[in-house]
Structures are given as structure tokens and as C-alpha cells.
Amino acid sequence: MQVAAVVFVVGSLLAAFVPTYIRQLRLSKISEASEHLALMHMRAAAYFAADHETERGTARHCLPGAAGPTPATPSVEPVEVAWNDASTIDGATWSALGFAPDRPVRFSYAFEPATHGCGLRSAEGTYLVTFRANGDLDGDGVRSVFERRAAADPRTGELVPIGILYTRDRVE
Q1: Under 8 Å CB-to-CB from 84, ≥6 apart: which residues?
Q2: 133 has which bridge partners?
Q3: Across-strand partners of 160?
Q4: What is the pLDDT of residues 1-35, one digit of tens each?
Q5: Which of 24, 116, 130, 135 has its CB 3.0 to 4.6 Å from that of 112, i.e. a possible disulfide?
Q6: Strands, DSSP E only, in 32-137?
Q7: Tens digits of per-residue pLDDT, 108-119?
Q8: Could you give phi then psi for residue 68, rounded to 5 degrees?
Q9: Per-residue burial over 135-166, b = 16 or more CB atoms within 10 Å of its CB, e = otherwise
């Protein structure tokens, strides 16, 4: 009788906590994307606000060319990435932005400016850059997509997020 009671209590606890544990595990995996997109935006905003030497002198409101997806495909298991490999076009952009996550990643990241160069402005209702993360956390070929966009604030000239963090198939 006591064994049955113990089995019942353990089974009840497992039934209550296993789904919560699995949900928390998934959320910890997808939090990588939102954290890194926020970091990417922060780095791009700093780059946009900084002075850059050009052929015509010093300029502001600059964005480098596109980069990514880096790594080329997302992974179920975290992978190390050489973000600042200057021998690649992507590496030069990631290095210019100072974007180099300090731990292995599961998602594939992209920096997609609508245009690049200096003296950039945003027309009303448009954006200058898209930050994107794609993931395939369970290896089934269905990808999660996280996307944030930014524009130049016409009053301050700062690169500011527009809209919300867009997600599709968040946990697949």
C-alpha cells in the first residue's frame, strides 16, 4: 500500500513538473534569438551614431553592408562561430558592428540594411535595417524566425527599433 502511495505521489509530481521543465528548456533556447537581436541592434545603433572616415571626410549615420546568415544554417546543438573573420564579407561587417556573441549559437543571424553607406535617413514609415535570427531547434526542417527592424529617428537621427519583435513558429 505504501509503495502505491509513493508511486502515486512521484507520478503526480512528474506529471506536474515535466511539462513545465520542457517548456522552460524550450524558452531558454529561444531566448538566445531575442537577446542577440537586441545586441545586434545596440551595436548597429552605436555604429550609426559614430563618426566614420570616408573618402570625402568624416561622416555619420552610416551602416555597413549586409551580413549573414551566420552560421549558414542553424543547428540543433550550439556551434562556435568565427564572427570577426576579416577574410569574409560577413566577418568584416560583424567586426565593424562589433557583433560577436561570446558563446556558441543555435540560430543563424543576418544583418540586412535596406541600403548601406553614410548620411542615411528613413522616409516616414520605412526602415533602414532588419535584424533576423532563424533557428531549427528540433532538427525537423521547420524554422523559427525572429525579426526586428530599425529606422533613423527623424528628430534625433538615432537608429531606433520600429514595430515589435516579429516571430514565426517561435518554438516550431
Answers
A1: 91, 94, 95, 100
A2: 109, 146
A3: 151
A4: 676 666 665 566 556 655 654 555 555 567 899 99
A5: 130
A6: 52-54, 57-59, 67-70, 108-113, 129-135
A7: 999 999 999 998
A8: 100, 175
A9: bbbeeeeebbebbbbbbbeeeeeebebeeeee
